[in-house]
Amino acid sequence: MLIVGELINSSRKAIKEAIDAEDAEAIKKIARDQAECGADYIDVNAGTYVGKEDQYMKWLVSTVQSAVEIPCCIDSPDPKVVEAAMELHKGTPMLNSISLEKERWDALLPVVAGSDIKVIALCMSDSGMPESKDDRLSIASDLINSLVKNNVPVENIYVDPLVQPISTNDSYGMEFMNAVGAIMTEFPGVHTICGLSNISYGLPERKLLNQAFMVMAICKGLDSAIINPLDKRMMANVYAAETLAGRDEFCGNYLTAYREEKLVL
């Protein structure tokens, strides 16, 4: 399971305060904490700084990379911000995200075409948000085929089938799950990813729903997620679900997590 740590986002109060104060040590600590808890990428988002997003994005990327060796996930729909971040990023980053929305696609395709960048391909189009498994699969098919035609290696594509709140439609959970299963079956080599906390929006005890949803999604084939790696119970559920899904040879990762006291009950 590839984990993208979600915590360095300017929409979070603590992060905005750190950015405003240019408190590099606070940002570095959050980056280190996420890496130590199992993150493979650190998501960086400065989207609340309209007109200055590129400036703060560059500062965040430089600050994070001075603290950890793992790469960043550049989280912005603005191609100028993405390009500015990519220019100074050391190593191969991830882009969060491209979609079939024409304006976004046209702006970001030149950034990723023919590159080694890992690309999150969000199942959104100008027709709106997908409702069903078939809607998601159709958009995913167009995204994957178009990216591959533009020299993006299939193994660098991370399809996000789009999680929507179960509180607004009781079919959204299983439609997402079934889309993950269909995408992983029909497109060998492609990955699936999501920001799964949307599933519990508007409901109490959100962590419980998020953890259960993660386990179900892993069993459908989900192999990447944008989450808070400091949530020890969530991470314990990831280790357990991957083992039970047959994706942990000889239970090696599970046993390592046990020895490192990461299996919080």
From TrEMBL:
One annotated Gene Ontology cellular component of this protein: cytosol
Domain (Pterin-binding): residue spans on this chain: 1-246
Enzyme class: transferase
Alphabetized UniProt keyword annotations: Cobalamin, Cobalt, Metal-binding, Methyltransferase, Transferase
A biological process from GO: tetrahydrofolate metabolic process
Keyword Methyltransferase found: yes
Gene Ontology MF annotations: cobalamin binding; metal ion binding; methionine synthase activity
Record-linked Pfam families: Pterin_bind
Transferase recorded as keyword: yes
Family under the similarity heading: Belongs to the vitamin-B12 dependent methionine synthase family.
PANTHER family xrefs: METHIONINE SYNTHASE (PTHR45833:SF1)
Name of the protein in question: 5-methyltetrahydrofolate--homocysteine methyltransferase
Lineage of source species: Bacteria, Pseudomonadati, Thermodesulfobacteriota, Desulfobacteria, Desulfobacterales
